[in-house]
Design brief:
- The complex is a heterodimer of chains A (263) and B (400).
- With 263 residues, chain A is an alpha/beta fold.
- Chain A contains 10 helices and 10 strands.
- Chain A has a 6-stranded mixed beta sheet with strand order 6-7-8-3-9-10, with helices on both faces.
- In chain A, 41% of the residues are buried.
- Helices cover 71% and strands 4% of the residues of chain B.
- The longest helix of chain B is centred in the middle third of the chain and has 37 residues.
- Chain B has a 4-stranded mixed beta sheet with strand order 2-1-3-4, with helices on both faces.
- The radius of gyration of chain B is 31 Å and the shape is elongated.
- In chain B, helix 2 packs parallel to helix 11.
- The chains are: A alpha/beta (263), B mainly alpha (400).
- Chains A and B meet through helix 3 and helix 4 of A and helix 1 and helix 10 of B.
Chain lengths: 263, 400
């Protein structure tokens, strides 16, 4: 359903970024004026599957997810979603993808309901469609009691749930979540993990990046690991354990990172 | 595009800072500032008028009548100081020991007796604009000088009329063909466009920062980019919102101006203001507003481009200072003496509108020029939109 094939992306460095890299970083991906954020990254995820995207900070997870959601254009490679080339048909692909970034992406001076309905309208949904899809979603996420409150009065857990509702109101086939449980309490995390499982059960694809390996062990059917902008693993947990000869997921992950760094 | 426009307006209406810049500032703050300034200046002027000046008269014995008049005058009090050099005099004034020193010529009586022109000196600190020292001294001095002149005329058997005919053989009577409105328009025509255009800029500035850099910082811009809405629609939605706030600010400023002019004219009973206000028609005010529409458009494009470029709200605020200077410069040029609205100036953005508002206020506007101004300003506004869209499509700008 989703194929990320040999995707590469570089960014032009600003003067400040160049100075910072010169003094603080010894990342091999930095060239004279460019930073090679991604180098031929590949992975795939089918319908009804959850893919956990793993990697250390700065590995290129967010850039990969942004390209997948067509916020950024890759320098080379292709992304196919349901047979549609995301780069060539970004507009059509956007209808099929729901994206939740590390920031909640909500307008603080609007109410929760206004936020959700605004994005629904931007996706071309009619009032009738919004009413039809929103009610079950509100119930599923348990957000009905504070829909009419302004976002700047909500807790981080409430905001994250509203943000998920905003990301999936247009009924996308794939949801892409960038570190969805970071900074949330246990209750809010539970709601979000439960939501991912329900979404998967509906036969839809979920791709999420995280640093919590327990969430990956619990939810993910597949794992993709990125290190220093390059793919170093694409497969299921059993394959990762076999390849690294480690039963513990944390140890397997660390082993995989170490082996790619040695190369 | 309209979804974005309406949402942005709704958000701005719920923001107190925006409401302050768009509504409160033009409606209340400026009249308050003017009123406060008026009261302060009036009090300072009154204090200055009531102030009793400490003086020292050097060589007082050479002009006893003058010395006596000054001594008994209510505006003066004598301080006896021995001041021999200019340096000592300046030092005494600087220290605040005295306000004024009048130095009578040593040969005053001989010069008068010999029909020679005499020369005295007056020392005071004239740095303050509201200084009344010279005018107060003049009252006494001119009275003394007139007495001496009358004595001399009597000695020569001449009357005042004969003296005047001799000193002024021809008089030139000035007949100003400009009417009251043109005169006032010329005087306030520099300040008013400045205020209106600056209000357009300040009214659009905060929303521009909020809609560009603010959205970037809060992460909502990324979310917006992931919707199927085209980037042109996003830019136009934001552009129109910023332009609307600029126009609303201008509208409120014009309304505020009319209201306060009416209040001052009617209730403070100031004839000049009442007459000038009465000479303006609704069409004049509409023309001024019409001129401010393309100006708001140019500002909207400029401010949005900068705001989109900035990484954060704070960075955008830092950029806005120099941009304001860019906005003020054409207005300042238009305020320079000798700059008149012609076809060449009608093509210079912002300056053309400042000059046109001045002509509208004077009642001497050439309507053909208005068409040139609207056309050229619209072209600049469209160019600013095109640049915004180009800017908005660049990843290196959006994801700096």
């Amino acid at each position: 359903m989703i194929s990320v094939v040999q995707v590469s992306k570089s960014f032009t460095l600003s003067k400040e970024a160049k100075k910072q890299f010169l003094h603080e970083s010894h990342d091999e991906r930095q060239q004279s004026n460019h930073f090679q954020a991604l180098k031929k990254v590949s992975f795939s995820c089918d319908r009804g599957q959850v893919l956990g995207l793993l990697g250390p900070n700065g590995a290129g997870k967010t850039t990969t997810l942004r390209i997948l959601a067509s916020a950024l254009k890759p320098d080379s490679g292709e992304i196919i979603v349901d047979g549609i080339n995301v780069i060539e048909n970004a507009r059509v692909a956007k209808e099929k993808i729901g994206f939740l970034s590390t920031k909640t992406g909500l307008y603080s001076r609007l109410t929760a309901k206004e936020n959700i309905e605004y994005f629904a309208k931007l996706h071309g949904m009619s009032g009738q469609q919004i009413a039809q899809y929103s009610e079950p979603l509100y119930q599923q996420l348990g957000i009905g009691s504070y829909l009419h409150r302004r976002v700047d009065t909500l807790s981080s857990g409430m905001t994250q749930k509203i943000s998920i509702a905003r990301a999936v109101i247009h009924q996308p086939e794939i949801i892409v979540l960038d570190e969805p449980t970071t900074g949330l309490d246990i209750m809010a995390t539970e709601v979000i993990l439960d939501f991912i499982q329900r979404y998967k059960a509906q036969g839809k694809a979920v791709i999420f990046s995280t640093h919590h390996l327990d969430e990956v062990a619990m939810l993910a059917d597949k794992i993709a690991i990125i290190n220093q902008g390059s793919s170093c693993f694409d497969g299921d947990i059993r394959q990762l354990q076999e390849q690294t000869q480690c039963h513990d997921l944390r140890a397997a992950f660390m082993q995989m990172l170490a082996s790619t760094e040695n190369h | 595009m309209w979804q974005i426009y309406l949402k942005e307006l709704l958000e701005l209406v719920r923001d107190r800072k925006t409401l302050f810049f768009i509504i409160a500032l033009p409606l209340l703050i400026f009249p308050v500032i003017f009123a406060v300034m008026g009261v302060v200046v009036a009090n300072v002027a009154m204090d200055e008028q009531q102030k009793v000046l400490k003086y020292t008269l050097i060589n007082a014995d050479k002009a006893p009548k003058f010395s006596q008049t000054l001594f008994y005058h209510r505006d003066f009090t004598q301080i006896d100081l021995s001041l021999n050099t200019d340096q000592e005099i300046k030092q005494a004034i600087q220290n605040g020991q005295i306000d004024v020193v009048i130095k009578v010529n040593q040969s005053h009586e001989q010069n008068i007796a010999n029909n020679q022109k005499d020369n005295w000196q007056i020392y005071f600190n004239g740095a303050s604009q509201l200084n009344s020292v010279k005018s107060k001294v003049d009252k006494v001095f001119l009275q003394y000088s007139n007495t001496l002149r009358q004595q001399k005329l009597a000695e020569l058997s001449l009357s005042e009329q004969q003296y005047e005919r001799l000193t002024t053989p021809i008089s030139l009577e000035v007949i100003n063909t400009a009417d009251q409105r043109e005169n006032v328009g010329e005087q306030v025509g520099g300040l008013l466009p400045y205020l209106l255009i600056v209000l357009c800029l300040t009214g659009a500035m905060y929303p521009a920062i909020d809609l560009g850099a603010g959205e970037k910082e809060r992460g909502t811009l990324e979310t917006l980019l992931l919707t199927p809405i085209s980037r042109i629609s996003i830019v136009l939605g934001k552009y129109l919102t910023i332009m609307t706030t600029g126009i609303i600010t201008a509208l409120i400023a014009v309304f505020s101006l009319s209201l306060w002019s009416f209040i001052i004219g009617e209730f403070a009973n100031i004839d000049v203001v009442r007459e000038v206000f009465a000479s303006f028609t609704a069409s004049d005010l509409l023309l001024i507003l019409l001129m401010l529409v393309p100006v708001s458009g140019i500002f909207a494009g400029l401010l949005l481009s900068i705001s989109i470029y900035a990484r954060s709200f704070k960075e955008a605020q830092n950029y806005m200072g120099p941009v304001s200077m860019l906005g003020f410069f054409p207005i300042m040029v238009a305020m320079l003496p000798g700059i008149k609205l012609d076809w060449l100036w009608s093509l210079v953005p912002i300056s053309n509108v400042a000059l046109a508002i001045k002509e509208i206020l004077k009642g001497t506007i050439d309507y053909t020029m208005l068409i040139y101004i609207l056309m050229s300003s619209t072209v600049f506004a469209i160019l600013s939109i095109i640049f915004c869209v180009y800017w908005f499509k660049k990843e290196s700008v959006l994801f700096r």
